[in-house]
Design brief:
11 helices; 5-stranded parallel β-sheet
């Protein structure tokens, strides 16, 4: 009888999948969906934002993977077009970092708003937790453009109830020692500044994923 009970228990566990504890221990899969700021333009493979973020999170004891889905030159339209294949099955969370190229090219902010809105909507519909990182229009685009562009990100974060990082380049933009010679892309030191600043938000992102899993 005892052998029968043991065998039956093993069968039930096999059919039900891994135990709850194992599910909780599964690493959190994060995708950084962005442009050259995410891709690591002008940097070595080990210096890109997703790589440095993953290292910082693991150093703090988090079981995570951070995938680099940054494409240099990408606009919010490009991000939306490649969303389904850039964020595959099994992804727990996405950091959305798009909009810089929209601003630089003077794309109608209404288009950017629609694209970012659609990206967040589709990710949430898939049960993926989102951290939306904002962008600020360059001053040379003028006050009218800035007034239409800058509210996009806080508005959409509030609308969808997602985690929000107001400005991806906060603390780095305009700092010569933290940028490449073009003055637009962070160097390795700049990336580390971004990682340190955004780390608490990403830890909140991980906590939301763990909570959704049940603890």
């Amino acid at each position: 009888m005892r052998q029968f009970v043991i065998g039956l228990t093993a069968l039930v566990l096999a059919l039900s999948g891994a135990p709850a504890g194992a599910q909780q221990a599964r690493p959190v899969s994060i995708v950084a969906l962005g442009d050259s700021l995410t891709a690591g333009y002008g940097l070595g493979p080990a210096e890109a934002f997703p790589v440095r973020l993953q290292a910082a999170l693991r150093a703090r004891g988090h079981a995570v993977t951070v995938e680099n889905a940054g494409v240099s030159g990408d606009t919010s339209s490009g991000g939306l077009e490649r969303l389904d294949w850039a964020v595959g099955d099994g992804v727990d969370a996405v950091i959305v970092e798009l909009g810089a190229n929209d601003a630089l090219r003077g794309i109608d902010p209404a288009v950017t708003r629609r694209n970012i809105d659609a990206i967040v909507t589709r990710l949430k519909a898939r049960g993926i937790t989102v951290l939306l990182s904002g962008m600020v229009a360059p001053p040379n685009m003028g006050s009218t453009f800035g007034a239409a562009f800058n509210p996009i990100f806080p508005d959409l974060a509030a609308k969808h109830g997602v985690l929000f990082d107001p400005f991806f380049l906060d603390g780095v933009a305009g700092e010569a020692g933290l940028n490449l010679a073009d003055g637009m892309h962070p160097n390795a030191k700049g990336v580390d500044v971004i990682v340190r600043r955004i780390l608490p938000k990403v830890e909140d992102l991980i906590a939301q994923v763990r909570s959704r899993r049940g603890g």
